[in-house]
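ok new one. same drill as before - structure tokens go in, u give me an amino acid for every spot. 385 of them this time. try not to just spam alanines like last time pls lmao
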């Protein structure tokens, strides 16, 4: 398990890497837009907007790091992750709109045959510097992501790599325009617009999947199922359900245990299942387990069907049927087991009974309740003092 100090250190490292990305993306975005506007390069302007999309994504990484550590409150019992999801949905929509505008404007310039002036050496040097800077940022961010085991930071590193690819396209277009192939600038702008649109679509798709509670991949669910099954005392696992929220995962599952173990033992088995799942999947933010004394997979929600009587009703029936039996004063207490749609009773006797009396008692008590449909077998247990 990661200690609290290590978690704080990892969070600090992740924030530092993201802040570096923020400054770099901001500077490159401004420089590309300004220089692109001055030299008349739509491709360089589009690439600057692509850098700004990275800048906004960096902001979401910082927000996720911040809000991910905030626990639930009285208004948000499951935390604040959905706020980030909604904002990401909005961001993806805006990026798709911007990408469409870039691609359409550049396509019109291409079809109209608009003359593109030679961009000059400074525009090409800027594109080359941006390409090298983003490639360095990719490697730096990826190293930090591997060290702190952050999938979110790793995804942001690959986002930086996408900017490297788009800048490479722009650089080739600028070189082409410098040698008289001005139409390459418009083509590159369309390509970059499509890349920005893909970023927006990915954000839109992933956030929409979270909002409709899409489950984790089937292989991840199967691995979680196996982790739970390997806990001592677990006899089965079913109804394992997962969903995602702001980069975290939530899992609910039913754990089948021995039907006659104590409540506290069953609960501790469930706690161990939860601990092992969290250890195997650090992205888990919430684990809810339901303890089952028998495998009821596929039987549906039990609250939709008639239930068995609870202890007050059982007490009343047993007292009514057994109070006339000589053993009644010797019964210290009894334990109820709700199994297979009926109730079994373990009777604990206070006092010493002969072997023959103990052997005959289950049959005698069972005969007194044989017409009660929800009562099953009776077992006798004697407390030895």
């Amino acid at each position: 398990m990661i200690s609290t100090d290590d978690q704080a250190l990892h969070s600090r490292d992740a924030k530092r890497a993201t802040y570096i990305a923020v400054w770099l993306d901001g500077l490159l975005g401004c420089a590309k837009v300004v220089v692109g506007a001055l030299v008349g390069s739509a491709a360089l302007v589009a690439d600057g907007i692509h850098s700004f999309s990275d800048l906004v994504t960096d902001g979401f990484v910082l927000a996720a790091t911040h809000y991910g550590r905030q626990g639930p409150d009285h208004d948000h019992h499951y935390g604040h992750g959905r706020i980030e999801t909604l904002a990401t949905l909005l961001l993806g929509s805006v990026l798709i709109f911007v990408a469409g505008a870039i691609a359409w404007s550049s396509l019109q310039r291409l079809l109209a045959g608009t003359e593109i002036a030679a961009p000059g050496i400074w525009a090409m040097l800027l594109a080359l510097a941006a390409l090298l800077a983003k490639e360095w940022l990719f490697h730096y961010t990826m190293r930090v992501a591997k060290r702190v085991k952050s999938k979110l930071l790793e995804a942001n590193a690959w986002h930086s790599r996408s900017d490297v690819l788009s800048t490479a396209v722009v650089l080739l277009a600028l070189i082409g325009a410098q040698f008289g192939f001005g139409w390459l600038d418009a083509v590159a702008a369309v390509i970059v617009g499509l890349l920005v649109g893909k970023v927006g679509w990915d954000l839109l798709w992933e956030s929409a999947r979270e909002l409709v509670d899409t489950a984790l991949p089937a292989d991840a669910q199967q691995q979680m199922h196996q982790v739970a099954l390997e806990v001592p005392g677990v006899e089965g696992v079913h109804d394992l359900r997962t969903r995602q929220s702001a980069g975290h995962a939530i899992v609910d599952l039913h754990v089948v245990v021995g039907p006659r173990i104590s409540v506290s033992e069953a609960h501790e088995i469930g706690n161990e299942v939860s601990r092992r799942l969290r250890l195997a999947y650090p992205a888990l933010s919430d684990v809810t387990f339901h303890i089952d004394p028998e495998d009821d997979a596929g039987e549906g929600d039990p609250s939709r069907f008639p239930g068995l009587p609870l202890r007050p009703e059982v007490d009343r029936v047993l007292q009514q049927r057994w109070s006339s039996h000589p053993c009644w004063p010797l019964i210290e207490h009894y334990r109820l087991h709700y199994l297979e749609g009926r109730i079994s009773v373990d009777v604990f006797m206070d006092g010493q009974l002969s072997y023959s009396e103990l052997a005959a008692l289950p049959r005698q008590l069972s005969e007194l309740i044989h017409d009660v449909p929800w009562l099953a077998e009776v077992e006798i247990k004697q407390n030895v003092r």
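The chain has a mean pLDDT of 81. and btw DSSP finds ten helices and six strands in the chain.
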